[in-house]
């Protein structure tokens, strides 16, 4: 996600070795937010940010701009609520229909990050 500064601007945080110092962005400079890095902030997501850990969502509640899976602001993904509703519906139907849902693959998560993150081993699931 990138924006161009229309005038000289001071961003309140993000600079320095700790990320807590201000950053100066001169007029016409591009400011880029790296969502991959944003979603690996140990202060928000815990020390095991590089590990696949779906249970982390039981322990954390990121603030508005700390999780941007659907981007954010006026240009964010317009279908976010519909996508979340459909995913919730599918999960509810699967939970009602099957007693157990297990991984069908003994191999662990092997990430391939491009535009989205995916498992290079695919998604092998067993329903009982």
Report on this model:
The model has no long low-confidence stretch (mean pLDDT 88). The protein is built from 3 helices and 8 strands, in the order ββββαααββββ. It is of the alpha+beta class and 128 residues long. It is elongated, with a radius of gyration of 19 Å. Strand 2 and strand 3 form a beta hairpin. It folds into 2 domains: 2-91, no CATH class; 98-128, no CATH class.
Can you tag this structure with a few keywords?
single chain; 128 residues; alpha+beta; 2 domains; two-stranded antiparallel ribbon; 3 helices; elongated; Cyt_P450_sf
Précis, in short:
By secondary structure, the chain is an alpha+beta fold. It is built from three helices and eight strands; from the N terminus they run ββββαααββββ. One of its GO terms (molecular function) is heme binding.
């Amino acid at each position: 996600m990138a924006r161009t500064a229309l005038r000289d601007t001071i961003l309140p945080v993000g600079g320095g070795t700790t990320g807590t110092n201000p950053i100066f962005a001169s007029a016409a400079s591009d400011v880029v937010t790296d969502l991959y890095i944003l979603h690996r902030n140990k202060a928000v997501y815990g020390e095991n940010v590089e590990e696949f850990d779906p249970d982390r969502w039981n322990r954390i509640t990121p603030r508005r701009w700390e999780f941007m899976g659907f981007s954010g602001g006026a240009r964010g993904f317009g279908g976010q609520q519909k996508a979340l509703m459909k995913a919730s519906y599918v999960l509810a139907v699967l939970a009602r229909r099957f007693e157990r849902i297990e991984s069908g693959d003994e191999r662990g998560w092997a990430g391939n990050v491009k535009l989205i993150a995916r498992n290079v081993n695919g998604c092998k699931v067993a329903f009982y």
